[in-house]
Each structure stands twice: as C-alpha cells, then as structure tokens.
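Input:
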Amino acid sequence: MLVVQTIAEVRKFVGEARESRKSVGFVPTMGALHEGHASLIRRAVERCDYVVLSVFVNPTQFGPSEDLAKYPRTFDADRQLADRLGVDLCFAPSASEMYAANCSTYVVPEGLQDALCGRSRPGHFRGVCTVVAKLFNIVRPDVAFFGQKDAQQAVIVQRMIEDLNFAVELEVLPTVREPDGLAMSSRNAYLSPAQRQDALCLFHALQAAFAAITRAQRDAAAIRAQMQQAIAAMPSARVEYIELVDAATLKPVTGLAGHHVLIALAVHVGATRLIDNIVVDVT
Amino acid sequence: MLVVQTIAEVRKFVGEARESRKSVGFVPTMGALHEGHASLIRRAVERCDYVVLSVFVNPTQFGPSEDLAKYPRTFDADRQLADRLGVDLCFAPSASEMYAANCSTYVVPEGLQDALCGRSRPGHFRGVCTVVAKLFNIVRPDVAFFGQKDAQQAVIVQRMIEDLNFAVELEVLPTVREPDGLAMSSRNAYLSPAQRQDALCLFHALQAAFAAITRAQRDAAAIRAQMQQAIAAMPSARVEYIELVDAATLKPVTGLAGHHVLIALAVHVGATRLIDNIVVDVT
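Output:
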C-alpha cells in the first residue's frame, strides 16, 4: 500500500491505475478505523481493481464547539489495517493541502441539511458535501463506499451525486454493530465503561420501534414515545432527536404505512453524541 | 457536428473521444452566440482535439424578476455557427434534463458572490457555479474557455476549480468588441438604435479610467467620478455600479498603486442591463 499526502500524488497513482483499465473504488474516512470502516474497505477490495482510502479529519464539517481537536487519531493502526485489507493507496492529506487559505466555494445540500443531525449541527453537511466533492474530483472513483450508520450523510451524498452529475456510484453498506448491538463509531472511544453500557439505549430504542411496527403499530408518535422510554431508562443518556422520516426526502412521516421509513436518533451519553438508525419498508 | 440533448449521450461521445486519447475542450454558453463566443470556440478548436459546446439558458442563474423568459434564443443560427467553426459536439439539454424536480444541492461561491454583479443579482453566481460544476462533471473537459467580459464569473469559476479540485484548466479570453468599442453581448439585441448609441458610455467610461491611470491618477474615487460623468452624458443610461477592485479577491481598492485592478461597471440602458470591464496592472 502506498501512503501519500498530496493531491498531485493521488492524481498520478490513480491515473496510472486507470490507464491500466482498473476500476477505482474509494472509501473516504476520518480515520480511527473500526469494523464499520473495515466492512467498506473489504467490499471495495472485492468489487474494484484499485482501492483508495482517504484518512482526513475534515475541519469544515465540525462546528466551533464540536470535537475537532480531540477527535480520535490513530493513523498507525489505520494504515496497518488498510494495508492488511488490501487498500492500494492511502491518502492522508494535511488540512492545508485540502483547504487553501482563501478557499470560499462550498457545496450546500439545501433543504436536506435542515433535517435530523443538520438541525443541531449547522454547516456540518455543507462541510461533508464540500470535502466529498473535492475528494471525488481528486480521486475520480467509479464507486464510493459509505456506511448506513451515517444515514443522513448517505442520503445527502447520493443527492449530491445526482444533482451535480458526479460520475460516481454510491454503495451504502449496513451498519456494523458490537455483539451487544451498539453501532460501531469512532466516538465510542469517548465512553466510560458505565456510559458504554448506557449507550445501548440507542439500539434498544430501535429494537422497540421495530417490534412495534411488526405488531402493526403505524403511528409515528406512538413509536417515538416508546423509543423515548428506552432512552429514559439509561441515567447518562439525553435525547437530541428521535425521528421517523421518509428515507429519501427526510421529511417526517406521521403514519408509517406505505413508507420507506428511516428511524433515526441522536442521543448524548455523557458528553458523547451518538447516532443510530434503521430503515424499515412499512406496508 | 453532433447535436445531443441528453447527459448520457455527452458521456458516451466524450468518453469515446477520450478513449482515442483526444484532449477535450469545452465552451459553455447560453446560446445567442456572437463573436465573443466565436473567439472562445476558435481557441478551443485550435487548442484541443475534441470540442464540446453547451447551449443552455440556465434557469438557476436568473433572478425571479430577470429576463429568463425573453433571453434571446437563436438555436438554428447557433448550431450553424458552431458547426462552421469546428465544434465536435453540441450539447443542448432541456431544463428538466439538467435539473431534476427534487434537486437541492448547490455550489455557492461564498464571499466572492457578494461583490459587483452579485450584489444586485442574489443567487446568480450560485446558479452559475452549480451549472458549471454539473457541466464539468458531465463533460469532464481538460480545458474550459470563458470570456473576460463576465469578469466576476471568470474569477469565481477559477476559484471554484481550485476550491473543489476540478481537474480542469480555465482559459479566459479577451472581451470582443464591436468596431465602436461596445462589448459583444447577447443582451445587446435588446437595445433600440438610440440605446445602442447610449450603450457606448460603458466603453467611454473605461477609456476615461484607462486614460486617467496613464496620466498617473491613482485614486479610485477620482477615477470613479470621471467614469460616472461618461455615463451621465448618455440620456438613457443609469449606473448600477462602478467599481475598482483587486482582480483576484474582488475587494475594493482605494489607491491603485501596486494592484492588479479590475475596473468593472454595470449600467442600465433603458431596460437593458449591460456590463463591461478592463483589468489594469498599476505600478
């Protein structure tokens, strides 16, 4: 595996791969790789001839009071894992390589950014779209791999690809969970042992929602109330949002019948903000 | 010359050209082609192996009270000119081919859009950047050709290319003028014979500015005042702005010395809004 820091090197090596008619797969990450990322990389290696991984903690997607400075950085372990899994090129740029001092052009997902996580994280998805657009233009992949764990991000990136006509296919892979159900996240590293236990409430809430739907519950408010209870059961947990929305438009649904429903929640466990979701096809 | 209406056809034909290792040049236009466009096409044909022209009156760059509906459309003449000049592929999509009903991702040139024309045309450069980003992703040109006549547009597109890492080189070509000095513009077609005469005031104002600078005038306010007089001399003309700005940042300059100065103005002649500019390296 090659590790490079500059855009010019990425263009050079990916250009050579493309010259040899290799298909190019791309896994963009902020590092601190876990099994969720590994599943994306494995799929990319399986599907594409040449796999590029980016490791970049993107400053433009963090708010001023968010955890940019303390976001976990584990580059040595990341590069070893990536190498072992068969990544061909690891792109780990500096912030100044990615953002010139005078940069001022942003990609804005108007509308879709006002739902779910976007409400408490203004500018977050503008930062995500901007860096993903940049990375798409640098890497020019055939396929990009994202995780369903960040459901709103996947919807917004898919819409960006369509709206801006990127010649990139998005493949979204299922959320990978710990044995007890906690969704894998780089931010799980922030949790104390007690909080790690309480963090299960997100999964429990989603289980409760799913069980209610299988028992023919179709009322969004009733399902939310049940999910709320699951969170309330854990002392260090505080709900930021629990939402049932159309999985494509992210608009809230009141009755679930006939919808492809994204059930998503954000919960603060101590000082750590966690998210999780499931998508249910409701008849 | 091939004429196509769909994105898929553009990708197909440009893909074939690229397979044969041809360099791809791109001239994006809103049609109503004049000698200014012709100079861009001639340069593209001279420089590149395969030349794509787009003809698309882009709705997202028009404000609600602007001239989208009556913007001149002369497609038969446009395609004949393009064919004669050696364009390989003319892309003339419908609005619905370019914008899906649910599209909501925009490219926003924050900061630079607040200067000059952007002040009276809110959203204009968001529309320009969005459609140019889309067209870049559809055509994937090596070089794109723009006119200096739309000076702010050229600066903003250059910044977009850098900020979003498009693998496209921008070549900006000089403003083409009528024999009496009026800058070529599709909107000149709106002018009555009397207004056509008054429209010369833009060129006269720029000549006055240039003459003042050669006479060692370095004070922006003094130069503006002289330009203002040139406009005031014409009965149907009304100034929207006269600005002396740094040619890269578009920030106003007060003393010209040491600046690469963009002297730009927008003037309403009757109901027609006209713009013009010169760039002067001031020592």
